Fold this sequence. Notes:
By secondary structure, the protein is an all-alpha fold. It contains 5 helices and no strands.
Amino acid sequence: MKCKSMKYNVISTLFVMLLFSGALFAGFYFQKNGGASSSYFFGGATGLLLVAIANSIRILRMKKNPKYRKEQETAQKDERLVSLRNRSTAVAFFVLVISCAVLSIISAIKGDMDKASDFSLVICIGTAVHFISYLILSHKE
């Protein structure tokens, strides 16, 4: 596996499988304790398993087909696609922060301060992750 995109895909698949294991464990834990949220974790685990399977199929396809691997490497290095990915990530983050802020305000108006503080926590964590990743990436360039 000399190709950078294949290494990235293998690492991301292993990470998804780790998340799948955690969600499955949490589902069994809550099912054992009679919690209603076990189906939530089992559903999340199913989704993560499907993502891992799709990634594994893509990795196998890249391993067997050098032409497909070359296309993936070219697409990964294309400056237009890199710029598009960066902009879409920025828009997704902006939408997340704004929607959490709106939901926090609506929850506070309704008097549900627990949900309002949860949405505010998501905003703080997202902003902190954004700031830390910006600092790390700005030192690499």
